[in-house]
Amino acid sequence: MVLAAGEAPEFLGPVVALVCVAGLIGAVFVRLRVVPIVGFLLAGVVIGPHQLGLVSEEAYVQTAAEIGVMLLLFTIGIEFSLERLAQIKRFVLVGGAAQVGLTIAVVAGLVVAFGQDWRVGVFTGFLVALSSTAIVLKVVAAKGITTQPAGQVTVGTLIFQDLAIVVMVLLIPLLATGEGAGGGGPAGIVRALGTAALVLTAVLVVARKLMPPLLERVARLCSPEVFLLTVIALALGVAYLTSMAGVSDALGAFLAGMVLSESRHSAHALSEIMPLQMLFSAVFFVSIGMLLDVGVLLGLWWLVAAFAVAVVVIKLVTSLAAMALLRVGLPTAVVSSLLLVQIGEFSFVLQQTGAQVGLNPAGMGGQGGQLLVAVTVILMTTTPAFAAAGERLARWVGERAAVRGRAPSTGGGAPVPSGDGRDRVLIVGWGPVARNLGGYLRANNIPVTVTTLSPELAAEAEEQGHTVVRGDAVRASVLHEVGMASVRLIVVCENSGEETTHIAESLHNVAPGVPIVARPRDAPDVAGLHHADVRRVVDTSRAVSEPLAHTVLDLLDVAHASAGKPDPTVVVAFEPAAETGCPHVGEIRPVLPWSPGCTGCLKRGLRDWVHLRVCTQCGYVGCCDSSPQRHASAHSAEAGHPIVVSAEPGEGWAWCALDEIEVSPAVRGTPSV
Fold first, then answer.
1. In this predicted structure, what is the pLDDT of residue 357?
2. How confident is the model at residue 408 (pLDDT cuts 50, 70, 90)?
């Protein structure tokens, strides 16, 4: 389609409205310390066709939302791993199965009691049994209880729910056909369960045998673009193949993520696809909000409220019963149960599957669909409140138990200190310098974590006994796997100057309290590294030239000396006072000192300087005019760099040789070095 000048595509306006409103409301909820997904849901309610009508054409949004739910479930599948399942298998197989089974049974019984067919009851039970993996995982991570009993029980239940969807999707068509119809009855159910088992078996085989070598070959190209395209092709390709086989495309994307989860490049894949997932998932949650008709909500507010209360009560009771089987203690059971009371995003996938075969929530037709959307939006929105209530209630239960002389179970709401301090060094990139540094640290019993994109370098670092996380260190998911809470120091030592500055800026924003050491392969961007608050900068050429010069002078039997100041790895950034009268202060920039002592004197093997000065334009270190050699003034005249700053401890002033005036610092008495 060719557009005339000044003419915009018809989809552009709705897209701009969607992104702007979602971003604005999401930002408000972040400021309120509420999960931004809640903001996206409410943004959809506001801009949808039933309210303001800013987005009246839903086709564009639905297309993006379908991609969003596939990418969302793909990333959830990546975070699911067989190793993680093995660690909490009891919570998954016992707690999860009990929660899902009891919820389906209770809901189906209630629906049948109100005169509906049992198939409709089971279908409605499917919808209610699922919780929001996306929202609950974010809340659990934000509260820091992922590794505590409450978090593990919750995650185990969510994993079982996600796996149960495979069976649910295959059973829904059988529920619609009824017994005696083609494919229905006990034989059809057995066939569906067999198909589910075959699908999961195929996923396990591909995950273990085929996917690791394929991703290994792609990762060896060290091309983020090719790797990202491969990951997206895998996600959407498997989704397409499963849809061709009669299984939900969203479920196919989830299975593709499971396939990828067993690769050691899963963290790298997650970091690459996460920006796209965030964008399209935001559209997905906005699209859910757009389905809600506030008019219907107001007209049937009592029914919506009754359904919401019923869902909360049913899921709370069935979850507590499941936790009782696990014997995890009442405080843990309360926290986990209140985290699971909402209806999940997977329920909309099931609803769409059911609608294709004539099934609808509670047998209420279109009204049932609106009620499902309304109840889901309300419960998703109130999930943080339920989580906070669970923490308070768990503390109260624990206190009552303590009063009665019984020790409360751990894993309630408050995080338990792990006792592990910041003891780890994070090395970004791997190469000759990082290899030697890692050896020194390991010899001194300092644990090291390495991030790199190269499979060969990652394998080499692992052979040396280091913990390795494959992926780009500026990605949030990679840093999450690193565990920044345990990092004491960050070293960036195998990248170019520009890359080093970019990495330092990103890491400083993520972990502002962790010191960073930078060693670019080429010339450092001193100003950029200073603005990124890098604690030490090692200039490769200078770091090598000094020991090389000492070695050469030793072999020539020439006496030489070195000094301990200024430190060549510490940026000198002099900030002049605003009222200074020197017209040359605009030439001042952050610099690295050339040498630990007067550069000119050290070259001649001398050490007879009195005071030291640092050039504020290039970092040359020279001796003052009271010294015999007067190298600072000589360099200023030769290079045309007029301002030097004192390198003496406790002195923060500078001197302009051209104007012969002292330049005061912005804060008097602040040392310049």
1. 83
2. very low
Could you tell me which residues are beta bridge partners of residue 568? none
The lowest-confidence range among 223-237, 457-471, 557-571 is 557-571
pLDDT grade, residue 193 (50/70/90)? Answer: low
- Asked if residue 622 lies in contact with residue 600, where contact means CB atoms within 8 angstroms, the answer is yes
Q: Are 387 and 414 in contact (CB under 8 A)?
A: no
CA distance 289 to 377: 7
What is the SS3 assignment for 569? coil
Which residues face 643 on adjacent strands?
656
Say which residues have a Cβ less than 8 Å from residue 28's Cβ, sequence separation at least 6: 39
**C-alpha pair distances (Å), 320 with each of 317, 406, 525, 539, 587:** 5, 20, 58, 60, 69
Q: What is the pLDDT of residue 470?
A: 84
Distances, alpha carbon 215 to alpha carbons 225, 310, 473, in Å: 14, 47, 19
What kind and span of H or E run contains 621?
Answer: strand 621-623
Q: Is the peptide bond before 566 cis (omega within 30 degrees of 0)?
A: yes
Residues 259, 265, 266, 268: is their CA dihedral positive or negative? negative
Nearest to 107 by CA among 320, 307, 354: 307
| pLDDT exceeds 90 at position 100 | yes
